[in-house]
Amino acid sequence: MAMADGSSPLADGGGETAKLVRAARAGDREAFGRLVELHQRSITRLAYRLLRDRDEADSTAQDAFVKAWGSLGEFRDECPFGAWLSRIAVNQCRDRLKRKRLVVLASRWEPVTSDARATSPLDAAVDPSPGPEARALDREVGRKIAEQISLLPDMQREVFALRYYQDRPLAEIAALFGVDVGTIKTHLFRASRRVRKSLEALYGPRLPL
Fold first, then answer.
1. Among 76, 104, 132, where does a domain finish?
2. Is the pTM of this model over 0.85?
3. Considering the domain boundaries, does residue 89 fall inside one?
């Protein structure tokens, strides 16, 4: 899909990424290496949210980039490059979970960083200067949230991760899965409701979520 000036909405709106993608398509490995540098942190973080294991996440991210390099001919300019990579990473995570029958645990909970702009409906209202007890509660709640997310059905877990940890727009996620936005909203609602209910059963309805 071309823009009014004849350009394409490539790669998350980044001019540098668009040039790099074109060069990589032409076989420029250095250009692709630069694309890896630009997206590695985001893709690895997404893999970690789904797998809950740092080594597995690193390995899966590398597999996703290898897959992307071999599939550049299938990339279409209508889709942001980062979103296309995210979808490949999600598929790699799903395959890895199925192959190894991984049990996703919450032993390494890591709070959402400030660069994850979307706010999850499950995020706690954290005091800007919490005391030791509040910090301990935050960590405990975080572990429980991660544990419950790991138990969600594949689609719900993946949509949740793409929305709240990748900050992907609903329409973009819908396009990645080939469904309508309403379906994505339904998955997010069900995932949030399921985790909320589990936490309320543990902490009561007054938990600040």
1. 104
2. no
3. yes
